[in-house]
């Protein structure tokens, strides 16, 4: 296969939803460690859920302007945790944990993504989300034409994705990965196994179409 788009499902709070995401083929599972979010869970709960993940499925901790102690405690409790910085964290802060991290970029007209990528050059990937009030998880699609033709970092496409639009995003933008929260939910923090499965199937169908086009 020429390209296998990685899938991250974010904002999980329940064991059954974690199982559904893993069974559907998710590569990464996100836990919101941002107390102001309706999807927030405690670090103890995130560690419990992370302990149920099989090998090769990555737990991701989402932080928004968290204190150093909080992030260090999460790294200690979940040794394989990938950090997702979704607030106003500086490059120096993101790097200071000496852990792989992904950095959210809040996409809006005038935002210079290439400059942002250069500033956060040590990020494992940039997660492109819509610029919404409350930092993220708003289920809002941003204008994909704001993404420059070449971004010097792996891109995680996010913001308002669902089973109906993710295929188009994969075909048009060929991101390294996609990330979804609202689009696979019944209510905030309560996922829907059917929507998760359909989301993952839509990504795989788009991957297969890309593969087909590449081998013609
Ligand atoms: O999920 C939240 O509540 C949240 C809060 C603060 C920052 C980010 C948040 N979620 C992340 O936002 C993107 C897009 O989510 P959606 O699919 O549009 O709902 C995703 O990475 C969420 O994990």
Automatic annotation (TrEMBL):
Q: Which family is this sequence assigned to?
A: Belongs to the TrpF family.
- What Gene3D superfamilies does the entry give? Aldolase class I
Q: Which residues cross the membrane?
A: none
Q: Which InterPro entries match?
A: Aldolase_TIM (IPR013785), PRAI_dom (IPR001240), RibuloseP-bd_barrel (IPR011060), TrpF_fam (IPR044643)
Task: Tell me if Isomerase is a UniProt keyword of this record.
Answer: yes
Occurrences of domain N-(5'phosphoribosyl) anthranilate isomerase (PRAI) (ranges): 7-201
State the organism of origin.
Rivibacter subsaxonicus
Keywords assigned: Amino-acid biosynthesis, Aromatic amino acid biosynthesis, Isomerase, Tryptophan biosynthesis
Q: Superkingdom of the source?
A: Bacteria
Keyword Zinc-finger among record annotations: no
For this protein, the Enzyme Commission number is 5.3.1.24
Q: What protein name does the entry list?
A: N-(5'-phosphoribosyl)anthranilate isomerase
Stored NCBIfam families? PRK01222.1-4 (NF002298), PRK01222.1-6 (NF002299)
User: HAMAP family annotated for this entry?
Assistant: PRAI
Under SUPFAM superfamilies, the record lists:
Ribulose-phoshate binding barrel
Q: Which reaction does it catalyse?
A: N-(5-phospho-beta-D-ribosyl)anthranilate = 1-(2-carboxyphenylamino)-1-deoxy-D-ribulose 5-phosphate
Q: In which pathway does it act?
A: Amino-acid biosynthesis; L-tryptophan biosynthesis; L-tryptophan from chorismate: step 3/5
Query: Which CDD domains does the record cross-reference, listed alphabetically?
Result: PRAI
What processes does the entry annotate via GO biological process terms? L-tryptophan biosynthetic process
Q: Which GO terms describe its molecular function?
A: phosphoribosylanthranilate isomerase activity
């Amino acid at each position: 296969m020429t390209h296998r788009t990685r899938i991250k499902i974010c904002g999980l709070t329940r064991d059954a939803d974690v199982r559904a995401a893993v069974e559907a083929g998710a590569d990464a599972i996100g836990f919101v460690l941002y107390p102001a979010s309706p999807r927030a869970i405690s670090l103890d709960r995130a560690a419990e859920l992370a302990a149920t993940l099989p090998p090769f499925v990555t737990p991701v901790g989402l932080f928004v302007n968290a204190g150093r102690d909080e992030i260090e405690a999460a790294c200690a409790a979940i040794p394989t945790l990938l950090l997702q910085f979704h607030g106003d964290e500086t490059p120096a802060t993101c790097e200071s944990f000496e852990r792989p991290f992904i950095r959210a970029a809040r996409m809006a007209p005038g935002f210079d993504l290439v400059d942002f990528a250069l500033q956060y050059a040590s990020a494992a990937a940039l997660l492109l989300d819509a610029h919404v009030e409350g930092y993220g998880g708003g289920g809002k699609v941003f204008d994909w034409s704001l993404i420059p033709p070449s971004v010097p970092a792996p891109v995680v496409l996010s913001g308002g994705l669902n089973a109906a639009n993710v295929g188009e995003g994969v075909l048009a933008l060929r991101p390294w990965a996609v990330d979804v929260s609202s689009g696979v939910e019944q209510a905030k923090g309560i996922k829907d196994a059917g929507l998760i499965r359909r989301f993952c199937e839509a990504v795989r169908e788009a991957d297969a179409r890309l593969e087909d086009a590449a081998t013609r």
